[in-house]
UniProtKB/TrEMBL annotation:
<keyword id="KW-0472">Membrane</keyword>
<dbReference type="Pfam" id="PF01988">
    <property type="entry name" value="VIT1"/>
</dbReference>
<feature type="transmembrane region" description="Helical">
    <location>
        <begin position="155"/>
        <end position="177"/>
    </location>
</feature>
<protein>
    <submittedName>
        <fullName>Fe(2+)/Mn(2+) transporter pcl1</fullName>
    </submittedName>
</protein>
<dbReference type="GO" id="GO:0012505">
    <property type="term" value="C:endomembrane system"/>
</dbReference>
<keyword id="KW-1133">Transmembrane helix</keyword>
<dbReference type="GO" id="GO:0030026">
    <property type="term" value="P:intracellular manganese ion homeostasis"/>
</dbReference>
<feature type="transmembrane region" description="Helical">
    <location>
        <begin position="214"/>
        <end position="234"/>
    </location>
</feature>
<keyword id="KW-0812">Transmembrane</keyword>
<dbReference type="InterPro" id="IPR008217">
    <property type="entry name" value="Ccc1_fam"/>
</dbReference>
<feature type="transmembrane region" description="Helical">
    <location>
        <begin position="183"/>
        <end position="202"/>
    </location>
</feature>
<dbReference type="GO" id="GO:0005384">
    <property type="term" value="F:manganese ion transmembrane transporter activity"/>
</dbReference>
Length: 235
């Protein structure tokens, strides 16, 4: 969403763009792909699984994980959009029935923001003249714009792609590295790839790099080690 709306409160169509929030979402889902697939493989490796079993497990985890996270993200975004559309319909009905009351509510909102009563009323009137529904949705519900259906599909597709990119790291290690050093190679690949995604997250959001990489490595390496130990004990 880009902060502008149409008369029904929805965001206008726009080309795909890569912003900080999109990059952070990509990093989170890619890390899930890395950690989940690597943790599963280390469990199988700890149990002494053969190369063919490891490759099958990695492939299944990659496909199932991508579809699962993509579907879940799409469902989440679609449900949020549906809820916003319900609020938009309710606000539209209230505007049609009592436009003066809605302007008064909007003016009260701007008064709480620190404007004088006279200025708040003038701002409310001007915003309502431009797009009354958008003004009410943003002030009462914090909705800057409502996405199109295509945006919810895009969010799901991006999540699935992100997971797939992350999961390909341990999958490629399983395919290319000899079995006798596979477990250590997966661990090394996890550390390197999580370090890389941490750099992306750090640069995209001006975050604290030590904190970002520490969190990522703690979860990632911890998951891989627990998976290996669990597989060893379950053998």
């Amino acid at each position: 969403m880009d902060g502008t709306t149409t008369q029904d409160g929805r965001a206008p169509r726009r080309a795909w763009s890569v912003d900080a929030a999109t990059l952070r979402a990509f990093v989170v889902d890619a890390n899930d792909g890395i950690v989940a697939t690597a943790g599963l493989l280390e469990g199988f490796a700890g149990a002494g699984a053969s190369d063919s079993v490891l490759l099958l497990a990695a492939s299944a985890a990659t496909i199932a994980g991508s579809l699962s996270i993509g579907g879940a993200r799409w469902a989440e975004e679609a449900a949020e959009r549906d809820a916003q559309l319900v609020l938009a319909a309710e606000e539209a009905a209230q505007l049609a029935a009592n436009p003066d009351d809605e302007i008064a509510e909007l003016a009260a909102y701007w008064e709480r923001k620190g404007l004088t009563p006279a200025l708040a009323l003038e701002v409310a009137r001007q915003l309502s003249a431009k797009d009354a529904l958008a003004a009410q949705l943003e002030s009462e519900h914090g909705i800057a714009s409502i996405p199109y259906v295509a945006s919810t599909v895009r969010a799901g597709a991006l999540a699935a792609l992100s997971f797939l990119v992350g999961a390909l790291v341990p999958l490629l290690v399983t395919t290319l590295v000899p079995g006798r050093i596979e477990a250590w190679a997966i661990l090394a690949a996890v550390v390197l790839s999580l370090g890389l995604t941490s750099v992306v997250a750090w640069r995209s959001g001006h975050l604290s790099f030590p904190r970002v990489v520490t969190r990522a490595l703690t979860v990632g390496v911890g998951t891989v080690l627990v998976g290996y130990v669990a597989g060893s004990f379950l053998l």
